[in-house]
Amino acid sequence: MTIEEKLKHIQDAAMTEAREEGNSIINAHRQALESLYQKHVDENRIQSATRIKSETIRAKQQLNQASAKAQVDLKRKLGKQQVLLKDKLFSEVHTLLGDFMQTDAYIDLLQDFINDSAAFAAGDPLTIYLNATDTDKKPELEHRTGLSLTISKDDFYGGVRAAIPGRNILIDHSFKRKFESEYDKFQFGGGGIIG
Q: Under a CB-based contact definition with an 8 Å cutoff, are residues 145 and 165 in contact?
């Protein structure tokens, strides 16, 4: 073998070894890049999943807040409407009560209240008060019951009040107290609409 052939052979061998080494370096680099790429993809998937989960939770919280606010607004509007309807209803009751107070049945009711109060007093001194609007009924009621009646300075709308001073008792058959008590207790639907 000539020197030229030896040089050629060494050169070919060196080139083959260099190619193999270069290919090995390239493959190692490629694998490192692919591994890095896969790691990056996996991290992005995890971040995306985490972001989707947190955004879902945030969206649910916003929905719950909006729902709660809508419920509060609805209850507030419902409550206002109930108050308006309650006021209208009791205004009608007040009118009907005024009409009732012009009937003979009202005089009979006043007589029953007076008799009940006298029976409760059981002989103790008592003062029976009529509302000023019932002044015209006083003579007939005194005649029916045989008791002296006093016209009250306080307006209690109708009915009767009786005081038994010796026992510190006030018997209150006034329409005002009963009307206010029923107004305070009244709820729509028996148990109320608002829970």
A: no
* 110: phi then psi, degrees, rounded to nearest 5: -60, -40
User: Could you report the per-residue pLDDT of 53-105, keeping only the tens digit for each?
Assistant: 999 999 999 999 999 999 999 999 998 999 999 999 999 999 999 999 999 99
Give the pLDDT confidence of 160-186 residue by residue, as tens digits.
999 999 999 999 999 998 989 999 998
CB 150 within 8 A of CB 127: yes
Q: H or E segment at 191?
A: none
Cα dihedral 83, 89, 94, 99, rounded to 10, equals 170
pLDDT of 192 higher than 60: no
Burial label, 159 (beta-carbon count in 10 A; 0-12, 13-18, 19+): buried
- Domains of the chain with bracketed CATH: 104-184 (3.30.2320.30)
Residue by residue, DSSP assigns 105-168 as HHHHHHHHHHHHHHHHHTTS--EEEE-GGGGGGHHHHHHHH---EEE-SS--SSEEEEEEGGGT
Whether the predicted model's global pTM rises above the 0.70 cut: no
Task: State how far the Cα of 97 lies from the Cα of 109, in Å rounded to an integer.
Answer: 13
Task: Return the closest-CA partner of residue 88 out of 99, 96, 189.
Answer: 96
